[in-house]
Amino acid sequence: MNAIRDANSPLLAVGCLLDGLKLLTRAELRQYLLIPLLINTVLYTGAFILGYHSVSALIHQAIPDWLSWLSWILWPLFFISFLLIGFFTFTLVANLIAAPYYSRLSAKTLSLLHGHAPVAADAGWDRVFFGELKRIGYLLLRVLPLLVLFLIPVVNLIAPVLWAAFAAWGIAMEFIAYPLEMRGQTFDAQKRFMQQRRWSMLSFGALTGLGLTLPIVNLVMGQTAVIAATVYVDRVLPPAGGDEAS
């Protein structure tokens, strides 16, 4: 239980993200960074342009006239919420395209941490791709009810908070999957792993999500998150093939 309790600390998530940022500069990882960088550049530039032209109109529709006097408070809240929705959606698309490259980046990171090639380092592209599709399907089924909340007066005032929590969880699920899949963990096992460490995972996802909304930073945030997730899993789980600490 102590291992799980320590792994549930938000500070561990912060530390792993900082380690991921440091490892990002390692020469051994550069060949795994270029294609995801190009993918992120194209997609997040598109997300920014689309968001700039559409978010304001969506916010005016979401805030009823009788609450217009609170618009100075609600406008930033809804703006951040729609920003999260947009970048969360584009993150799913980016990860779907870059999944094979992120998988190899995770494997190479693990080899750097241990000084040798990891066990089952290279899952097949088809397995990685369909694993990503399964996660996206799982998340999209939960996106629809949350979107409906924005259409319900008064209730839509808490929708941004719920969206922020959901986006953090979904982003953590996206990136933690790569090192867990290398260990042969099924999707159900991955969900259990996250549920046992929910505060750490929410912190990891929230900080990663914040980075994904920042211009320039978002171009390398995905790669940083993959490396950080690999470091995190390596710290809280025994070597591949062993039993999970509890």
UniProtKB/TrEMBL annotation:
Compartments (UniProt record) = Membrane
Q: What GO biological process term is on the record, naming one? A: cysteine biosynthetic process
Query: What topology does the record note for this protein and the membrane?
Result: Multi-pass membrane protein
From the record, give the transmembrane residue ranges.
32-52, 72-98, 136-155, 161-180, 201-221
Q: Does the keyword Cell membrane apply?
A: yes
**Pfam short name (any one):** EI24
What Gene Ontology molecular function terms does this protein carry?
high-affinity sulfate:proton symporter activity
This entry carries the following GO cellular component terms, namely: plasma membrane
Which keywords does UniProt give here?
Answer: Amino-acid biosynthesis, Cell inner membrane, Cell membrane, Cysteine biosynthesis, Membrane, Sulfate transport, Transmembrane, Transmembrane helix, Transport
Xref: PANTHER family: SULFATE TRANSPORTER CYSZ (PTHR37468)
Query: What name has this protein been given in UniProt?
Result: Sulfate transporter CysZ
Query: Species name for this entry?
Result: Methylomonas koyamae
The upper taxonomy is: Bacteria, Pseudomonadati, Pseudomonadota, Gammaproteobacteria, Methylococcales
